[in-house]
Amino acid sequence: MSTRLPGREYKAVFDRGRSARGRLLVAWRLPVETGESQAGVVVSKRTFRKAVDRSRAKRLMREAFRILVKEGRVSPASHWIFIARVSIGSAKCGDVKAEILKLCGRF
Rounded CA gap, 39 and 95, in Å? Predict the structure, then answer.
């Protein structure tokens, strides 16, 4: 099964989930009864003007989450949404992984 969150699930996460802010991103989490952890990403055109910068931010968040799920370090059966902040533009994948782990610990 894919680690990507279907678009129809975003509203439920924003309506019923909880959020935590970090330096690089904002994380929203909604526990679900069954299934694997899935994540969606949001990168604003207002924050990142150039498409190449938006795409890089999305890639970083998706890859960091995929690695953490593969390692079993993310809580199972949760839907996540990660919203990029400006500071993610200069971050590396390891930085984003550490940030996601830190935010996962807050829930």
Answer: 18
Q: Are 52 and 9 in contact (CB under 8 A)?
A: no
Q: Using alpha carbons only, what angle is made at residue 68 by residues 92 and 46, rounded to the nearest 5 degrees? A: 50
Give 7-105's CATH code, choosing from 3.10.105.10, 3.90.950.20, 3.30.230.10, 3.30.70.2740.
3.30.230.10
CA 13-39-61 angle, 5° bins: 125
Per-residue pLDDT at 2: 76
| pLDDT tens profile 57-102 | 999 999 999 999 999 888 778 999 999 999 999 999 999 999 999 9
Q: Round to the nearest angstrom and report the end-to-end CA distance of the chain.
A: 24
In this structure, the dihedral spanned by the alpha carbons of residues 80, 84, 87 and 88, taken in order and rounded to 10 degrees, is 70
CA 81 to CA 41: how far, in whole Å? Answer: 6
For the entire predicted model, the pTM comes to 0.91
Average pLDDT, the chain: 92
